C-alpha cells in the first residue's frame, strides 16, 4: 500500500513540476500570458512548483525505509526519475505535437528502465 501511495504521489508531484518547468512554453500561446516578462513567468512557475512539493515531500517520507516505507533512498530517486520521464513524455506528446520521439530516445528510455531493474535487483 505504501509503495502505491508513494508512486501515486510521485506521479502527481512530477505532473506539477513538468507543468511548472515546461508549461509556460505552451502558455505563451495565450494572449495574456505572452505579454508577461520573465520575472512574472518565473513567479507563476514557482507557484505551480510549490504544489509539487506538497506531493514530493510526503512521497519521499512515506516511501523511505527509515520511515517505514518500502524503498531505499537510491530506489526512491531512480523511481522518481523514471516517473519524471514518463510524465514528461506524455506531456510532450499531448501538448507539443511538433516534438517527435526518435529511435535513440526510445533506446535511452529503455536504458533507464534497465537502470530501474538493476537498482531494484536484490
UniProtKB/TrEMBL annotation:
<feature type="transmembrane region" description="Helical">
    <location>
        <begin position="76"/>
        <end position="96"/>
    </location>
</feature>
<feature type="transmembrane region" description="Helical">
    <location>
        <begin position="36"/>
        <end position="55"/>
    </location>
</feature>
<dbReference type="InterPro" id="IPR007437">
    <property type="entry name" value="DUF486"/>
</dbReference>
<protein>
    <recommendedName>
        <fullName>DMT family protein</fullName>
    </recommendedName>
</protein>
<feature type="transmembrane region" description="Helical">
    <location>
        <begin position="102"/>
        <end position="120"/>
    </location>
</feature>
<keyword id="KW-0812">Transmembrane</keyword>
<dbReference type="Pfam" id="PF04342">
    <property type="entry name" value="DMT_6"/>
</dbReference>
<keyword id="KW-1133">Transmembrane helix</keyword>
<keyword id="KW-0472">Membrane</keyword>
Amino acid at each position: 500500500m505504501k509503495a502505491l501511495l508513494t508512486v501515486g504521489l510521485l506521479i502527481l508531484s512530477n505532473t506539477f513540476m513538468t507543468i511548472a518547468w515546461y508549461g509556460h512554453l505552451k502558455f505563451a500561446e495565450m494572449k495574456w500570458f505572452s505579454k508577461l516578462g520573465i520575472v512574472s513567468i518565473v513567479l507563476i512557475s514557482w507557484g505551480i512548483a510549490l504544489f509539487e512539493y506538497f506531493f514530493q515531500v510526503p512521497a519521499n517520507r512515506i516511501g523511505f525505509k527509515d520511515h517505514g516505507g518500502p524503498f531505499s533512498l537510491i530506489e526512491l530517486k531512480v523511481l522518481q526519475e523514471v516517473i519524471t520521464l514518463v510524465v514528461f513524455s506524455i506531456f510532450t506528446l499531448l501538448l507539443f505535437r511538433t516534438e517527435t520521439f526518435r529511435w535513440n530516445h526510445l533506446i535511452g528510455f529503455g536504458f533507464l528502465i534497465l537502470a530501474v531493474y538493476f537498482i531494484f535487483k536484490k
